[in-house]
């Protein structure tokens, strides 16, 4: 740690010169004089006024004969000339093309722009897009298959095996431990040198991933419980998310975010933080709901040239009801930004993600017994969002129930409802319904958490009322 | 005949050395000066080779003097599982290492070539000329957006130009750029006010263009009007951000990448005495120290964080004292003396190369 002691001899920026010095200085090779009107400490200012690094160094080098007579004046003119030449070029240079404001959030995407969805030319074309996406149920449930947790372990192993630039960085991931869920433990004997403990410092975890990614590595960061991301907020929203946009830097990193309730784990081990980042341009968000997708989406997340938040629902980790057989080798990657239609039906569309996809499926099965056919759309990615699949499901089914574990206000559900009413208004036969958790912190005690979270019965009742509407 | 340092007027090497010891390890001042005198009886050397040549003897002399101050027996462990003997041994080693570092920096300073020093002076002058031009942009109305003058923001570095010298011995310049634009040299993360260090990484007109253009918001790489900070990643200059410690943590990650590459490259973070109050700065230096990453941290104490004076920022006597909390060496240097700055950073880089990996 090197401390350099000096003094700022101007204001914080132009606007502050007057406040600092008590006068607005002219550009000069010498320091300006300060007046008593300014906020600068005059005694300090006077002391440092005698220590201009250019003047004192020039005198030293002249004294040692390293700078010859006249050279200094020549160098001053040279510097002014170079600067003036560039300044003139800047005056003459064009302003940026306004449309480039929409470019460069993610690699390889078309520039973003405002679209007038009521423009008849656009409206007439899009209103007919009502064909459900292809059914994609995924591998069947297999009680002898692999858990969601196994799938994440396999996925990280796939990434470590495939690319020496990949490493894992997070709290309690290394040594003999292997993360809070022991998820990484099977990988430690083989990849122990690439699974690295961080101090207890979420900004640090994220900042290291960002810097390493910029320098050509492929980091996998782990936030032990996604609730703790709050202490790393700045690194995500102001650093990772903006680097490509600000200056074109690529930040190919994955941040693993174990999340979610249904486990009686209280207000700091249960939250749904995905909506915090859903509205941050520059961050991708994936939320797999099955073991197969967990592994296949992870492969795409690691390969992606931009930062990806990978949400893994803790309640799914060891849920035997969702086990699937998985191949020995890496799966074909599932592209980011593509939803999966888990069940096809024409009476209503249930849109969900994460653990609640399985609740939606169970509800849909019970509705089918009463001849109410529901589509179930698993979003899988929240950013980029598969808007086409959401709108197609809405137009096809005419009734939409959005179900998520997150609190309702300002969540993904309200965003989807806004998109659907704005772009598929003509297709709707009923209000878009949103079922989410209460707008409270996540309570700890089992009866309180059950009351807080949307229950299967609540989802079913909402679905039946919507179908009858 | 031993001279008494309290009564002797020190000059040259001994004077600078004595000031360092008095600042960092004041209670060892007498021992350190005696050891220096013993290692170089008579005339103090002033050239790199001469100074380096006396260092082994100096270390022995100082170590012997410190250890001669035997501790009384009967001291319990200073902390559980650490004996007083162990603790004192650590402290002696730290003092010897720090004092030897001061001599090594003096040797490096003596090794600075005329070309390097001329470059530093010219670089500082270029910095001031660019800053002056920003002021001219602000005062005038050369750049217009619509009917209004666009004046820029005018973050300038007046008084802090000597930071240029921090980069003179880094891996920098066009020779470290791959054909694909990949940067293979060291990486610096200046604050917006550390214009000089950016110019030092890329000392040519394009660099001036980048810095002025960014603040004047015109089209052009690398910001294309989207940000006003300085920087050019493809020349080893990480652009800063207004949330100041963003780049400190990014540098930690870049240092992690350099460590994983095993390339010997180093990553340098710059921040002000205000910015180092941020939690992220603490996280960065702490984690780099814990993993022995090839990172160097610089605090530019320029007396004022926007308007906040130093005393409102921190109770630390000097900001280099913060180093102790992270288990890394710290030193305070006159930020207006380019020779000392160049030597301090060159020393930090070469010292970093000797640090073993964590167990």
Concise summary:
Chain A has 469 residues and is α/β, with parallel strands linked by helices. Chain A has helices spanning 14-21, 42-49, 53-63, 71-92, 120-126, 148-162, 188-191, 202-214, 233-240, 243-247, 274-278, 291-303, 356-369, 387-397, 412-423, 446-452, 456-468; strands at residues 2-5, 141-146, 166-170, 195-197, 218-222, 254-259, 284-286, 308-313, 340-343, 348-352, 374-378, 381-383, 400-407, 433-437. In chain A, strand 13 (400-407), helix 15 (412-423) and strand 14 (433-437) form a beta-alpha-beta unit.
Compute the number of strand runs of chain A. 14
User: How would a crystallographer describe the biggest sheet of chain A?
Assistant: 7 strands, mixed
Instruction: Work out the oligomeric state of the chains in this entry.
Output: heterodimer
Low-confidence region ranges of chain B:
none
Overall average residue pLDDT of chain A:
96
What is the straight-line distance between the termini of chain A?
A: 68 Å
**Portion in helices of chain B:** 40-55%
The helix/strand series of chain B, from N terminus to C terminus, equals HHHHHEEEHHHEHEEEHHEH
> Strand pairing plus helix content of chain A: what structural class?
alpha/beta
| Number of DSSP-assigned strands of chain B | 8
Mean pLDDT of chain B, to the nearest integer, reads: 93
Largest beta sheet of chain A: what is the strand line-up? 4-3-5-6-8-7-12
């Amino acid at each position: 740690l090197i401390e350099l002691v000096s003094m700022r001899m101007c204001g914080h920026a132009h606007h502050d010169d007057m406040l600092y010095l008590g006068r607005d200085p002219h550009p000069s090779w010498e320091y300006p004089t300060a007046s008593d009107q300014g906020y600068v400490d005059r005694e300090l200012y006077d002391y440092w006024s005698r220590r201009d690094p250019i003047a004192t160094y020039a005198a030293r080098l002249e004294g040692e004969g390293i700078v010859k007579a006249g050279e200094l004046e020549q160098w001053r003119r040279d510097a002014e000339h170079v600067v003036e030449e560039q300044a003139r070029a800047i005056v003459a240079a064009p302003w940026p093309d306004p449309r480039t404001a929409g470019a460069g959030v993610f690699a390889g995407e078309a520039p973003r722009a405002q679209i007038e969805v009521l423009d008849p030319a656009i409206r007439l074309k899009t209103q007919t897009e009502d064909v459900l996406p292809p059914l994609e149920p995924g591998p069947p449930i297999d009680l002898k298959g692999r858990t969601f947790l196994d799938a994440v372990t396999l996925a990280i192993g796939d990434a470590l095996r495939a690319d020496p630039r990949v490493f894992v960085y997070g709290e309690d991931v290394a040594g003999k431990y292997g993360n809070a869920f022991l998820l990484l433990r099977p990988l430690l004997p083989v990849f122990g040198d690439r699974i690295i403990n961080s101090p207890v410092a979420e900004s640090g975890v994220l900042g290291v991933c960002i810097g390493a990614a910029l320098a050509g590595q492929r980091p996998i960061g782990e936030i032990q419980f996604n609730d703790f991301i709050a202490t790393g907020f700045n690194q995500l929203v102001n650093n990772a998310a903006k680097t490509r946009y600000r200056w074109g830097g690529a930040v190919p990193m994955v941040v693993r975010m174990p999340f979610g309730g249904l486990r009686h784990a209280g207000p700091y081990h249960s939250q749904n933080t995905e909506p915090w980042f859903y509205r941050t341009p520059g961050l991708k968000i994936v939320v797999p709901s099955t073991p197969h997708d967990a592994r296949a989406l992870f492969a795409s997340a690691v390969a992606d040239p931009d930062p990806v938040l990978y949400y893994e629902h803790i309640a799914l980790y060891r849920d035997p009801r969702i086990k699937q057989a998985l191949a020995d080798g890496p799966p074909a990657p599932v592209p980011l930004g593509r939803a999966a239609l888990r069940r096809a039906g024409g009476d209503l569309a249930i849109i969900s993600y994460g653990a609640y996809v399985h609740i939606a499926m169970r509800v849909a099965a019970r509705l089918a017994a009463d001849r109410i056919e529901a589509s179930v759309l698993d979003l899988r990615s929240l950013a980029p969002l598969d808007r086409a699949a959401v709108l197609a499901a809405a137009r096809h089914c005419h009734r939409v129930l959005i179900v998520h574990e997150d609190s309702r206000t300002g969540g993904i559900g309200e965003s989807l409802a806004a998109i659907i009413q704005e772009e598929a208004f003509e297709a709707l036969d009923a209000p878009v319904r949103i079922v989410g958790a209460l707008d409270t912190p996540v309570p700890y005690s089992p009866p309180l958490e059950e009351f807080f979270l949307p229950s299967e019965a609540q989802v079913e009742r909402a679905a039946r009322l919507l179908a009858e509407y | 005949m031993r001279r008494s340092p309290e009564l002797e007027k020190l000059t040259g090497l001994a004077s600078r050395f004595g000031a360092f010891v008095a600042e960092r390890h004041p209670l060892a001042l007498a021992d350190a000066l005696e050891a220096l005198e013993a290692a170089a009886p008579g005339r103090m050397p002033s050239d790199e080779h001469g100074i380096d040549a006396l260092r082994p003897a100096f270390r022995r002399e100082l170590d012997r003097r410190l250890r001669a101050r035997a501790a009384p027996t009967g001291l319990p462990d200073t902390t559980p599982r650490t004996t007083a003997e162990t603790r004192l041994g650590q402290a002696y080693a730290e003092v010897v290492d720090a004092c030897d570092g001061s001599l090594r920096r003096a040797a490096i300073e003596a090794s600075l070539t005329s070309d390097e020093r001329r470059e530093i002076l010219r670089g500082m002058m270029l910095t001031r000329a660019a800053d002056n031009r920003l002021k001219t942009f602000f005062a005038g109305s050369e750049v217009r957006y619509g009917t209004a003058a666009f004046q820029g923001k005018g973050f300038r570095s007046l008084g802090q130009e000597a930071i240029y010298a921090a980069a003179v011995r880094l891996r920098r310049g066009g020779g470290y750029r791959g054909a694909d634009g990949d940067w293979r040299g060291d990486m610096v993360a200046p604050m917006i006010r550390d214009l000089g260090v950016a110019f030092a990484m890329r000392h040519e007109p394009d660099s001036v263009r980048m810095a002025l253009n960014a603040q004047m918001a015109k089209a052009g790489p690398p910001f294309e009007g989207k940000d006003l900070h300085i920087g050019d990643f493809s020349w080893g200059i990480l652009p800063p951000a207004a949330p100041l410690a963003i780049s400190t943590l990014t540098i930690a990650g870049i240092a992690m990448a350099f460590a994983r590459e095993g390339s010997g490259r180093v990553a340098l973070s710059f921040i002000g005495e205000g910015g180092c109050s941020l939690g992220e700065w603490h996280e960065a230096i702490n984690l780099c120290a814990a993993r022995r990453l090839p990172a160097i941290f610089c605090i530019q104490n320029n007396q004022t964080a926007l308007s906040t004076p130093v005393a409102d920022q921190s109770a630390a006597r000097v900001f280099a004292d913060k180093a102790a909390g992270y288990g890394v060496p710290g030193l305070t240097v006159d930020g207006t003396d380019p020779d000392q700055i160049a030597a301090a950073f060159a020393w930090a880089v070469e010292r970093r190369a000797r640090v073993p990996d964590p167990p």
